[in-house]
Target: histidine kinase
Amino acid sequence: MFRRSVSFGALLLALQVVIVLMTTCAAGLLAAKLQSDRIRDSYKDRMLSVAESVARLPAVIEAFGTVDPSASIQPLAEVIRKASNVTYVVVADGNGVRYAHPDPKRIGEHVSTDPSTALSGEVFVGTETGTLGTSLRAKVPIRTPEGRIIGMASVGILESQLSEDLAEDLPELIGWLAAAALVGVLGAALVTQHVRRRMFRLEPAEIAQLLETRDAMLHGIREGVVAVDDQERLALVNDEAMRLLGLAEDPSGQPAAEVLDDGLLALARGDDVADRLVLAGERVLVANRMTAKTHDRAVGVVLTLRDRTELHDALRELDGQRTVTEVLRAQAHEFSNHLHVIGGLLELDRGPDAVAYIERVGGAGSLTADIIDGANADPALAALLLAKSSTAHERGVELRLDPGSSVDIRAGDDALTVLGNLVDNAVDAVETGGTVRVLVRSSASGVRVVVDDDGPGVAESQRGRIFDLGVSSKDAQGAHGRGIGLALVSRVVTRRSGRVAITDSELGGASFDVWLPETGNR
Model:
């Protein structure tokens, strides 16, 4: 036999009904207690007033001096008892012998409760059990005009009468409580319906499963996802986004301005856009922004991020290869002409002239060790310069190493990043036949990189923003990723607390001077 679990709606309604009923019952008990206390206090005041009135009646005080006090006091006590609607009015002398009692047979007997309090001159109000049963009573001393205590007056009402009075008030109280409970139950039903609608009538287990599935999917996709709510707080950052942004802990709930870089923050605050290049630290990202809406109301924005750092390098390499291909086509045509000349000289049996011609044209594209002179201390730097020199030569650009270069220690990855991007920028800037000069000087305090070219240079109006993402002084037509290399240089310099300066080069173009201090000296 399968046991079906109780639905969330039924459980929520049942809990609310239990709370309403418990609250109503507690309120009812408290109200009944307050009403009982009010009735008791009212009767206390009445009995005390009646007892004091009896004790002060001149006829009662004078009757104590007669031969048969009860003959005068009993009729008066009965009249007062009936008029005040109390259970009994008892008058006793200084010895506690009754002069008046609702049961005439009890007259002349000693009172059934202790009269010492009243006969000592004090007033007593409390509950005691006498011949008529348990009653709430008030005892007052009777004094002569001279102040001498000659007896006491006791007035009381049975506890059963108090209970009957309370029972008369209970139906009305119960009616109000029942009405309140009914309203509470109806309110609980409405609240349950509202909550169910807001939860799309899903059970808690289903909601938990949806959340787990959503988290697993969002954290499992290869794109970074960053959700920002309408208060500019991070609502969601998946694993890939944390990796791309270099975050060690989940920043969900934190202000976006404290976590996101300026580029991503500006993107989140702007309009919807697709495939926008942004920098996050030193990563080149392709970002998309989309407004998140619920019931046609904007509730935040969603940013999707893709890492384009490697793609950016590949596209720049592709741009270089395109140029190299064009150069190779021209060189192939020129090489064909050279072969024709050599072939003609050989047919004319002019071998020495052919050898001289080969020596004259064959060494134009060779690379020499002079290019990496001074860079032997760092193989990575030497390899980079050789690769850049080869690419520059194929594009018809001369890459020279400044004689003042000296690398006494390892330049480091940051210096290689800066040097590679600056050289690429300079080679792109100059035309065929141009020159790029590189100065690299490394020491224990840091690394200095200076790249000069004889290109068009950088206008002073652009020097303040040339390091911004997407800003380039070159024609971007047909090229990919313009305006990224210098932005990466700026990020590296900022992280290393270094400096970068742009001036006019002695070669006629631009000069980029970068200083990267060692991390221990920052």
